[in-house]
Amino acid sequence: MEKLSKQTINIIRTTQRNNIDLTQLADNKANVLLSLNAIMITFLLPMILSNLEVIFQGYLYIPLTILALTCFSTIYISAIVLKPSDLQEYRASSSDDPDARFSPFFFGNFHKMEPEEYYAYMKESASNTEMIKAHLMQDLYYIGRRLGYKMDRIRLAFNIFLGGLFLSLVSSAIVIYFM
């Protein structure tokens, strides 16, 4: 049975730490977007409701509608990023490979196991270096997939936010200029 080299262990640790840090960064960005847009809606809604007549007379409902849709869309996408993932999606045992074994290192694979069942499976898995390597690779893969999903959604939320903000400012300028 071949041992993992210290260099390999350090590479795995560094990769896992980087993925965890990037996941926290994505969650922080989503949280900032969600909070910012919620605050914008909180301040805009009372102002809009108290000035409905002026808004409709000056056609300001167009930029305000764009801004509201932007805020709600950004909040929705940010909430999706922050929502915990479906653990079944990241289980190797659901693959077509009958020999596929789930990793005992990822909580989503064992959170419903009884302690004795988990201890036995962990003991079996930890006794085989090749299985440990496969589990570590599997964990890194699924962490990376989830991170990629989060980053794609954050990018989409930022694009919607920036595009909607720009469109609402341009439409405001057009409405004000032609009124």
Outline the secondary-structure elements:
Blueprint: H1 6-50, H2 52-57, H3 61-82, H4 107-110, H5 115-126, H6 129-178
Helix pairs in contact: 1-3, 1-6, 3-6
Describe the fold and architecture:
- By secondary structure, the chain is mostly helical.
- It has a domain at 6-89 and 148-178.
- Helix content is 78%, strand content 0%.
- It is built from 6 helices and no strands.
Low-pLDDT runs of 5+ residues are 92-98
Number of discrete helical segments: 6
Element-level helix/strand string = HHHHHH
Q: What is the helix fraction of residues, given as a range?
A: over 70%
Strand content: under 5%
Give the number of DSSP strands: 0
Counting helices, strands and paired strands, the structural category is mainly alpha
Measured between the Cα atoms of the first and last residue, the distance is 80 Å
Main beta sheet strand tally, sense and closure: none
What is the radius of gyration? 24 Å
Overall form? elongated
Mean model confidence by pLDDT? 86
Summarize the structure.
This protein has 179 residues and is mainly α. 78% of the residues lie in helices and 0% in strands.
Defining key terms:
179 residues; 0% strand; single chain; elongated; mainly alpha
